[in-house]
Structure formats: C-alpha cells, structure tokens
Design goal:
404 residues; alpha/beta; Rossmann fold; 2 domains; six-stranded parallel beta sheet; 15 helices
C-alpha cells in the first residue's frame, strides 16, 4: 500500500512536527555514542522539516529500561550531543531530559523557534510505550501538529509511539519519512517484483529466528544460500555429522521439511560443503578446514574456501540479492572470511547492475567493516523489521499513515 511521504508534504513555518526516529544506538562504556549510523540516516528527514521552518520534535527509545521511570544509563543525552554535532550551529537543539511528555516537554516545544529541533527522552522510561497505552499516546500526540514516521527499525512493533500516536492524530498530516520510505520501497519491490535470478542469502545463529522468512522466500526466490550457525541444523537434517557445531535439535525435523519443500518447488538451497573449524572461538586458535563432516570436538565457525567459491558463484549470476545474517563468527578473525567474501561478491553484483539489499544489524556491521556498505543498493537500518518484511508481514505502523 503506497503511503504519503514527507517528499509530498512540508510543514508550515513554526509547525511542531512529531518525528518517530530510531535512535536506538550502541553506547561506549563512557556513555558516548559508539555508532551514529542510525542518527545520520534520520538526518535527511529532520533537515527537510527544519529547512522548511518546521520544528522537528524527535522521539525514540534506547535499550530496554524497566519502564518505571528514568534511568541515567539509558538517557538519550548522548544521542542529543551526537545529533547536535550533526546539525551544526545553524540550528538549535533542545533536549527534554528525563521526560517525553507532560508540562515540561510541552513548554520546551512551545518555546522552540522555526528550524529548531527538540529531542524527547527515552520513550521506554514510560510503561505505556511498550503497552501501546492510548493515554500515553494522546500525551505524545499533543506535542505536534503533524506526524512523521521515520523509524523503520521499530516499524514492525505495535508500541504506542508507532501505532497509537498516529491513530490519535487522524485529523492531522501523517506521512512517512525519507528513510522509512526508502526502506519500504527497496524491500517491498525486491519481494513483490524482483529482477531475476532472485537469491536470498541467510545466515546467523538460528533457523527458528528466520523460519517465517525462509517459508515465504521459498515462494519468491530462485535460490537460497544458507550459512552461519543455522546451516548446521540443515546439515544435520540431511544426515551430515556436525561435531560440536551449533544446532537447534528441536528444529531438525522442520529443516528436513524445508529442504523437501525447496526440492519440490525446484528451488536450490545451497548449504556449506566445507567449514573453517576450531575447538573454541578465539583469535589465534588452531583451525582446520573440514570437508563434509565436522569431527567430534570441533565446531564449524565459518564457511570454507570451496563453499565461498560456490556461494559467490551463485551471487555472480543474481539480479536481485537480499542478505540477512553473517556466514560465520565474523566478529572474530579468522572466522570473518566467509562473511567478507559474500560482502565483496555483493559489491561486484551491484557494480554490474544487480539490486543488493542487506538487512540485520550484524550484517550491516559486517558490510561496514568490509568497506562495501556505500557500494550496495541498500543497507537497512532495521534487522527485525527487515526480517518481518521478508516474512511478508504487514506493519500496523505503516497502515496508520495517509495513503498516497
């Protein structure tokens, strides 16, 4: 369902615009922002509002507070400092510390001038956020005369700030931000009308985490490439020995059924044929390449060289690629080689005209580390949300926006 976006609308000068952003960013041990990627991704929408003279009233969650009041360690104060640096001196930023609604928040919004930015504190300091409480939502809605959803990372959630707030603003403009629009278009079009061959690359730890996505993708793709810890559940299902590798034993029967479904549908499901193995995870540990079975006492921690060649060979012929989940324990060298090789293969695919889409926090971090993020078609800011889209799940938060 196409929705109206901020590209189709702009605020009146001085209009306070509620903007749901995803500033759920990692913090350093000293409290500063470790990775400002999500903040940077929201800047085009924020700038569009303030450059038109509107007041951007930004709201987000951070971490998982108890929901019974402010917690200093999860305050958005470090985010405010990072956002202030990105805005520069041309625009003022006001941070409503320890509050996201009520008289103090309203007073800050009322005092703001054209082109200013207001950042409310962590929405999850309030129990009503996760509960979808309409009274809490009404208090938030009172702070703005228009609504912009630019938080793809939480688009699959029914939190108060995602659904109940726009529902409380039915008579006011309700549009998608530039980031949300881009995410919906890339993932939506890739699923609905992909250029073929269409290949899905799935990794990560668990089959159960991606079961819905696998079932839906089997109807849509031409091939699925499976790596990471989840591959060993599939390998066990087809009778391979996997040693001490990660396995979900309660998912082996499901994996058997999925392999049968893929075969019946004529869809290739590519699994690793060799593995970089070790007896424990760590930098500098003794490793060996195991072809076929993994011996007892050893763990498969990355795809092996023959599998890298096979997987990248599949990607060389793809016209659309969606990737969610690393191929191994990519955070620890030398078990990052498979993930890095897939990242480089996606860059090559993009350069020859393929549409390449990466979803998931770990996968996004991996393509950043490989230095290819800027060379891909799209790197999603939302792991859970992108996975739900691959499952074909509609979002209530998007249904609340005005139709185009």
């Amino acid at each position: 369902m196409p929705v109206k976006t901020i590209a189709d609308w702009q605020p009146d000068p001085g209009m306070p615009v509620l903007v749901r952003v995803d500033f759920n960013v990692p913090l350093r041990s000293d409290g500063r922002v470790l990775d400002d990627r999500r903040i940077r991704k929201a800047m085009p929408t924020i700038r569009r509002i303030i450059d038109a003279g509107g007041i951007a009233v930004c709201m987000s969650h951070l971490g998982r507070p108890a929901g019974i009041g402010p917690e200093k360690r999860l305050s958005l104060a470090p985010v405010a400092e990072a956002l202030r640096g990105l805005l520069g001196s041309a625009h003022s930023l006001y941070f409503v510390e320890r509050a996201c609604r009520g008289e103090r928040a309203q007073a800050v919004v009322d005092a703001a001038n054209e082109g200013d930015v207001v950042l409310l504190d962590n929405l999850r300091f309030e129990a009503g956020e996760k509960a979808g409480d309409p009274d809490f939502a009404a208090d938030l809605a009172a702070l703005g005369r228009a609504w912009v959803n630019d938080a793809f990372g939480t688009a699959h959630r029914d939190d108060a700030s995602m659904v109940a707030v726009p529902m409380a603003m039915q008579s006011r403009p309700r549009v998608a931000g530039l980031l949300l629009d881009r995410e919906l278009r890339f993932l939506g079009e890739a699923i609905a009308s992909p250029a073929r061959p269409f290949v899905a690359v799935l990794g990560g730890a668990k089959v159960s985490d991606k079961l819905g996505a696998i079932r839906n993708l089997l109807k849509l793709v031409d091939a699925i490439v499976v790596g990471g810890g989840m591959a060993y559940t599939f390998l066990a299902a087809q009778g391979d020995a996997i040693g001490d590798s990660l396995i979900e034993r309660d998912m082996v029967q499901t994996a058997t059924e999925l392999l049968a479904e893929a075969g019946a549908a004529g869809k290739a499901m590519h699994l690793p044929t060799d593995h970089v193995c070790a007896q424990r995870i760590g930098t500098g540990v003794h490793t060996r390449v195991c072809v076929g079975d993994v011996p007892d006492g050893w763990m498969g921690l990355d795809i092996g060289p023959a599998t890298i060649e096979a997987f990248t060979g599949v990607l060389e012929h793809a016209s659309t690629v969606v990737w969610n989940g690393p191929m191994g324990v990519f955070e620890t060298s030398p078990f990052d080689a498979g993930t890095r090789a897939v990242a480089m293969a996606l860059q090559g695919a993009t350069e020859r005209g393929a549409v390449t889409i990466v979803g998931g926090g770990e996968t996004a971090a991996a393509v950043e580390a490989a230095g290819v993020a800027e060379h891909l078609s799209h790197v999603s800011t939302g792991g859970g949300a992108s996975l739900r889209m691959l499952e074909g799940t509609p979002f209530a938060s998007v249904a609340c926006l005005e139709q185009a």
